[in-house]
Amino acid sequence: METLFNEFGGEGWELISIIPEYTNTTNDQNQIDIIYVNTYTFVFKRPKQ
Hints:
Elements: H1 2-10, E1 14-26, E2 32-45
Antiparallel strand pairs: 1-2
């Protein structure tokens, strides 16, 4: 990931946000057992060219 982010930075992109997307599992009583991050969304910006 670091190498990829450095490549983006070299092209003028700036990482401005990382958004976790959560998923959960439930037990037999329909109560949440485990909450975990399923994926991340990375948001970048750069000056208009």
